[in-house]
Amino acid sequence: MSKTPILNHLRDVDREAYIASLFLSEDKREAAAALWAFNAEINRIRDLVSEALPGEIRLQWWRDVATGLRPEEGRQHPVGEALLSTIEQYNLPGHAFDALCEARIFDLYNDPMPGLADFEGYLGETRSVLFQMLAQILTGQAPENGDAAGHAGIAYGIAQLLRRMAQHRVRGQIFVPKELLQISGLSDAQFLSLDDPSSANGTVSALTALGRDHLQKAETAIGALPKEQRSAFILLGICQPIFKRAEKRGGDIAFEPFGISPFTAQWYLTRYATKL
Prior knowledge:
Helix content is 69%, strand content 0%. The chain is mainly α. The two termini are 23 Å apart. GO terms for molecular function: transferase activity, transferring alkyl or aryl (other than methyl) groups.
């Protein structure tokens, strides 16, 4: 099985998405890899900059590329080239990329997440849309019902944010909505200045429960999709093991990053793929 440059790149920047892409038919892997590689580029912007303005400039560049405003520049970047080819071939909506990048501006600042509705909306625009577009890539049309992608994006996004909670907290970012902080009796400032991990146990438990709820709803909706679209959701296979680890560790995850090994991720993704 030959690997294209964009698949090789995805393997280096997001191994879990790479593994999930390998379960797709060979003619769809490159397009899926382009989508997830674009997501990885957006994900890492905050890690690459020390101030918001350079981050906004980088994010705007990707926004312009994805919405067709910088085609020549975009095609000079390996991820941009693959993304533009995928958008053109599968008629992916430019407005979805525009909304994704607009929502991602939040990542560049240290404003706290206002509330649960805002949190779910943020994950919908930044994660759910990727599952929706991947389903469109697999069959040529987006699912008629957006419930599968909607809930999948929130579940997957929560799993990702749980893993990075410690890193976000160290640099003053709060992705946890106020309602879930209040379960532990914490304000935004108190969460950032925590010195006792157990003080965040209730919040971590509530966030994990929210992720599980959306995962269950996603899986119910996925079951109603045509079989050829279900493979768009293989990445959900990592959610349950992450939720289990987060629940077991409780507030410790606000102090120390955690994850699952590549081998473990591959095992769970393989098992999940066979169930879809």
